[in-house]
Amino acid sequence: MKIILSGGGTGGHIYPALAIAAEIKERLPEVQLLYVGTPSGMESKIVPAAGIAYTSLDVSGIDRTSMLKASKSMIKFPGSFFQARGIIKEFNPDIIVGTGGYVSFPIVLAGTFMGIKTIIHEQNAYPGLANRNLAKRVDRILLTFPEARQYLDSENIKVTGLPVRKEMMHTDKKQSRRLLGLDASLFTILAFGGSLGARTINNAMIDFIDRSRSQSLQIIWITGEAAYEQIQGELASKFDLNTIRPRIKLFPYLNQMEQAMSAADLAVCRAGASTVSELEVIGLPAILVPYPFAADNHQEKNARALANKNAAFLVIDEFFDGAEMYKKVQELLKQPEKLRIMGQNMLKEAKPEALKEIVDEILKLAPK
Length: 368
Fold this sequence. Notes:
Elements: E1 2-6, H1 11-27, E2 32-37, H2 43-49, E3 53-56, H3 67-91, E4 95-98, H4 104-113, E5 117-122, H5 129-134, E6 140-143, E7 157-159, H6 173-179, E8 187-192, H7 199-211, E9 217-222, H8 228-238, H9 241-244, E10 248-251, H10 257-263, E11 266-269, H11 273-282, E12 286-288, H12 298-307, E13 312-314, H13 322-334, H14 336-348, H15 354-364
Parallel strand pairs: 1-2, 1-4, 2-3, 4-5, 5-6, 6-7, 8-9, 8-11, 9-10, 11-12, 12-13
């Protein structure tokens, strides 16, 4: 069997595709996989490093900052479409899987015109432009959020969830706190903004630490590599480090995110689909501060979906600061039952079998 996978632009499109590829390969060792991405996007480095055959399309996303830039992107599309047809003719796949991003659009679209079985996975509560336009043509659509269904013109839809790292499935709070050198009894906050950090969250944390310095709580703070040294300097200039160091674990980046999430009682973070799915599997309530420049404002829609289910607080980036964070944390400290219910509601949204279900649906399209 031959399968093309395509997704790019952000890790949120790439890593689910890689998880899918690994699961398919585990089930069908003889399968031939080809990943279609862009020549210079992050997928062009990540995918070959994972040992998957890779080829690229000359395509660019629609720049909506001006009509001129948008027009330049559109002019490229016919060439991308015919290039995609050439890739399909040469590889002759049985199935094409798209996980979103503009690169997936021409290859999946071309597949629908060429009689190839096609399936797309949408990570967010509001579908991206590529998947919205492909919805009525593909054979199957898989969703992370049920809220996305209303925006897609198709009857062939199934909510599967989003694959999360297997390490997230096997965590223990006491052990995680011990490994991170944390007090087993203190209320613990995890603050992070993704691999690059989040300036809004980092700025709020400095003020929050000042406001909460007399309280019995501890913090796991992942600053992002670019901001780490600056934040170390700010902490040193504003606080007695000997006093605050025992209750603040500061990291530029943390590979063992499953330990940090498991150790925490509350997260303060962005609302990307992968982050949200991991919070759900752990059952970790959160203050979600959506990245304001995400395409189609999808992070706010992800966060709102959980806030509407009383699993998280939603605070718009513009209005999030140390004072707002302090207010929200105090509300939960005073109402531990509310925090417990939020955690339960988060766990209810979890789909730990997402990867299995996604690959089951893909393989259903295989020729008999």
